[in-house]
Design goal:
There is one protein chain. Helix 1 packs parallel to helix 9 and helix 7 runs parallel beside helix 8. Strand 4, helix 3 and strand 5 form a beta-alpha-beta unit. The strands form two sheets. The protein has a six-stranded mixed β-sheet. The protein has two domains: about 120 residues, Rossmann fold; about 120 residues, 3-Layer(aba) Sandwich (Rossmann fold), CATH 3.40.50.10090. The protein is α/β, with parallel strands linked by helices.
Length: about 250
């Protein structure tokens, strides 16, 4: 049987130029999108128990747009006015621009990196006198505290949101040729929603080493992995695999 149906465990792209739409058109595929995880706000009452005082910090490190949303939400909920002197250090230029939703961009001290946390740490090291606040999810990359500690930067973590499994009960069963995952949380959601999931001929694709590890630790077979030198994106990895697989089924 050729590969015809794919489920991508992310929201449907909002732009018509998504590589997934091109992939579907060129290979006569049906690609469905369904987030396997969702973000849940940590309430202000719970945040206060962390005993993190936002105003004790002179700078904020943002690793995502979600972190920005929840930082300003918690400030509003706890009636904190963020001073104009607060500095913002963002993982990427796109994340930095997203700050315009909450602050007058040109009047603030905003720094950004290339999209990689180690590169952002190089920027932070030039501002060693700052006391940094890092808004995070309960599930976050361990390299964040590891690199901050390694470089002796003063910081506090604030858990402002949680990553939880989506309710997928309406799917009834996972009847797809390929399932595509982007985080260990997605794998956890699959097993939580479908405890009797039997992979059989279903192919599993994963993005990033942590997701690949989660697939294997769950006792599942990993068929497609990205990024790889020959396939830096998930769409490219899928296309290469599907062309080779479908050709063998002629």
């Amino acid at each position: 049987m050729k590969i015809k149906r794919i489920l991508v465990s992310q929201p449907k792209p909002t732009t018509p130029k998504s590589p997934y739409f091109d992939l579907a058109d060129k290979n006569n595929l049906k690609i469905d999108f369904r987030p396997f995880i969702q973000v849940e706000a940590v309430p202000s009452k719970e945040f206060r128990k962390q005993k993190v005082n936002i105003l004790d910090h002179t700078a904020v490190i943002f690793t995502s747009r979600t972190a920005i949303d929840h930082f300003f939400r918690i400030c509003e909920d706890t009636r904190i006015t963020v001073p104009d002197t607060m500095k913002y250090f963002c993982i990427s230029e796109a994340t930095a621009f997203y700050l315009q939703k909450y602050i007058v961009y040109r009047k603030r001290k905003i720094f950004h990196s290339t999209g990689k946390f180690p590169d952002l740490v190089d920027v932070l090291k030039k501002h060693k006198d700052e006391t940094f606040l890092v808004p995070l999810s309960d599930i976050h990359k361990q390299e964040i505290p590891t690199l901050l500690n390694k470089n002796k930067l003063k910081y506090s973590k604030a858990i402002l949101y949680r990553t939880v499994s989506s309710d997928l009960s309406d799917l009834k069963e996972i009847d797809y040729d390929i399932l595509v995952f982007f985080s260990p949380s997605g794998i956890a959601s699959l097993l939580q929603n479908f405890p009797d999931f039997d992979q059989k001929e279903t192919k599993i694709a994963s993005f990033g080493p942590a997701t690949a590890k989660a697939v294997k630790e769950a006792g599942l077979r990993l068929d497609i992995q990205a990024p790889m030198p020959q396939a830096p994106s998930m769409a490219m990895a899928l296309e290469q695999y599907i062309k080779k697989y479908n050709k063998s089924k002629k």
